[in-house]
Amino acid sequence: MSAGSAGHPLDARIEALVVSPGHNYWFHSRDPADGVGPHPTSYPDHVDVVAGQGIRGDRFYGKVSQLASAVSFFAAEALEAVEDELGLTAGSLDPRLARRNIVVRGIDLNALRHKTFSLDSGDGLVEFEASGETSPCAWMDDRLAPGARNALRGRGGLRANPTTSGTLRVGRVMLVTDALQDPALAGARVRRRSRLP
Which fold does the domain 46-179 belong to in CATH? Predict the structure, then answer.
């Protein structure tokens, strides 16, 4: 896969889909010492995305909030970069454990922040309006590896709301966006600029 110029489709992949009806580790309100919540997590081969609602059957479905977090995305390359940074064996961390809904490969999610984009995995375009990063929480150190939370800062994923309905499937996917894309940056860290006084 090569760099995609703005407005041109880019071939990528959906590596995994993650759906859970409830929050097993909700932001910072639950201490890992208290244990994981009871909600089952599934890894289907396809999901139904509903405009303005999210992924049918997921914990954020119908609960679109100020966080614009109806659907979350995660780059598989980000976790590979974390493995390298932490000195772990390649492939030792499962990106599904980050509990982002859609794990992708070949997409620079940071370039999509606050942009619109569409994905087509064979059933037609599903459009999204992106917000900001899905910031990693303390649970990343427990579920993935010690140090993973800090290593994921600036590449923790993307929050977005669907603006059209459709189906997304594991496998090849086409990304359409006006944002410049370079798949080589999919695992790169973007640091927030500090505010001037």
Answer: M1 Pyruvate Kinase; Domain 3 (2.40.33)
